[in-house]
Amino acid sequence: MSRLHRENHLVERIGWLRAAVLGANDGIISTASLVLGVASAAASQNDILLTGVAGLVAGAMSMAAGEYVSVSSQSDTEHADLAREKRELADDPLFEREELAQLYVARGVKADLAREVAKQLMAKDAVAAHARDELGISEITTARPVQAALASAATFSVGAAAPLALVLVSPSSVLIPVVSVGSLLFLALLGAIGAKAGGAGLVKPTLRVTFWGAFAMALTAGIGAVFGKVV
């Protein structure tokens, strides 16, 4: 028999991967859209760059704060559920053991074996057993607010830096097409990287992120052009 080894599952990446892809995607789309909107209003290249930098800083802070608050809310809910479970285990451990056993029965385990499994798991760590099998809380999926906030802020900044780099290297006469095409290529690359890291197919995620990025940039550029003429 081969020696047992720890397997690395893709589901373990859910927490940081979601925050990272969201941050980078938002960084590219929001900054590129902002740049194109201002450029379409006939602003100077320096004004466009300044606007983009301000958008990067504000967006990174917003992403970090938003992720921290939302994931902290999830963490608070998890802790509240665990606290209630601890009280229930202290008040009526036999009922809780039977409740756990019935969960296994519902999954196809025979009643006697399910009760024995519940007994042994609760003898080792009753709270962990109920957290995992009754509440769906595990080490893999537990909320990590600081990790999510830092990942979102960092990846937003990296994503936002991409269209800003295009502004720096583009002549003002072709700034709009260069930023547009370059940002869409960055989005397509991000979609492919996210799909690869998550073990999904490449085509659908890449097309999805590219389509919505193009829509956002086109809409913002159109608004900039209209208001630029009015003002």
From TrEMBL:
InterPro entries: Ccc1_fam. Its main location: membrane. GO terms for molecular function: manganese ion transmembrane transporter activity. GO terms for cellular component: endomembrane system. It is a multi-pass membrane protein. It is found in: Endomembrane system. It comes from the Bacteria. The chain crosses the membrane at residues 21-42, 48-69, 148-168, 174-195, 207-228. GO terms for biological process: intracellular manganese ion homeostasis. Keywords: Membrane, Transmembrane, Transmembrane helix. This is VIT family protein. It comes from Bradyrhizobium sediminis.
